[in-house]
């Protein structure tokens, strides 16, 4: 689930796209989105795949159980679309329709930044308390 849903409690089309992206990454990599058994730099699936993409090592994240028995062009698209869907600024995420077109080779791959942008989550502010006067 997209982190913003935890703070707002509300889902949206963009949060659904985020979830689709996480599932795409889980399928491509054969692992869960958070794995505490991995080293810190690999614990977050999104961070790990984005790092691999930026280092031109995208096929290195592919599920080892596939034993290289996959279509390389298709497998290159799946994690890239997954990253596009989990892009930290929701405005940079595609629609599901756009993502499916890329997966079906009906549209070009998106240009992603080599490093994952820093997420900026809107956290609802709480009203500040009035200072209290402790003078008796």
UniProtKB/TrEMBL annotation:
Keyword terms, alphabetized: ATP-binding, Nucleotide-binding
Domain Serine-threonine/tyrosine-protein kinase catalytic: from-to ranges: 1-100
Gene Ontology molecular function terms on file: ATP binding; protein kinase activity
Pfam families for the chain: PK_Tyr_Ser-Thr (PF07714)
Keyword Nucleus: no
4Fe-4S found in the keyword field: no
PANTHER family: PTHR27007
Protein name per the record: Serine-threonine/tyrosine-protein kinase catalytic domain-containing protein
